[in-house]
């Protein structure tokens, strides 16, 4: 089902979803989103900087990517800029991803335990 984009062209929904996941496809951006999802109030850039230890210029670029894809929103108050998740579903997406990862790691751990339980094999020639 095509969706109209800001430029007026129509793009399939799967393409828009792929771009969303591209926006999320960096560890620093995931960390930023986790910081923002931890609180209900907007978070100043200074706190994000302190929590991530990312260079200010790089942080600004990561925030711009998230903002461009409507994952976060920002508000300037005086000299400070505050960020928040643009939609509560982003928090749900992060929790779902963490749950998926935990389940995957548990399955791999169980496979490793099953492997370790195999009887020994004779020495290779």
What's the SSE blueprint?
Blueprint: E1 2-4, E2 10-12, H1 13-24, H2 27-37, E3 43-44, H3 45-52, H4 56-68, E4 72-77, E5 80-85, H5 88-116
Antiparallel strand pairs: 1-2, 3-5, 4-5
CATH topology: Arc Repressor Mutant, subunit A
The CATH homologous superfamily is called Winged helix-like DNA-binding domain superfamily/Winged helix DNA-binding domain
The structure class reads alpha+beta
| Major sheet attributes | 3 strands, antiparallel
The CATH class assignment is Mainly Alpha
Q: Uncertain segments of ≥5 residues (pLDDT<50)?
A: none
Task: Order the strands across the largest sheet as they lie in space.
Answer: 3-5-4
What's the Cα radius of gyration? 21 Å
Strands, count = 5
β-strand percent reads 15-25%
Q: Which architecture per CATH? A: Orthogonal Bundle
Total separate domains: 1
- What is the string of SSEs from the N terminus onward? EEHHEHHEEH
Give the end-to-end Cα distance, rounded to a whole number of Å. Answer: 59 Å
Q: Please, how many helices?
A: 5
Oligomerization: single chain
Task: Give the overall average pLDDT.
Answer: 90
The coarse silhouette is elongated
């Amino acid at each position: 089902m095509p969706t109209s984009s800001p430029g007026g062209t129509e793009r399939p929904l799967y393409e828009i979803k792929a771009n969303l996941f591209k926006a999320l496809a960096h560890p620093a951006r995931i960390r930023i989103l986790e910081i923002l999802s931890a609180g209900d109030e907007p978070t100043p850039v200074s706190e994000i900087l302190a929590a991530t230890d990312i260079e200010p210029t790089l942080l600004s670029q990561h925030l711009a990517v998230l903002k461009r894809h409507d994952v976060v929103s920002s508000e300037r108050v005086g000299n400070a800029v505050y960020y928040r998740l643009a939609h509560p579903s982003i928090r749900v997406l992060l929790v779902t991803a963490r749950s998926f990862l935990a389940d995957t790691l548990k399955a791999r751990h169980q496979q490793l335990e099953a492997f370790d339980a195999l009887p020994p094999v004779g020495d290779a020639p």
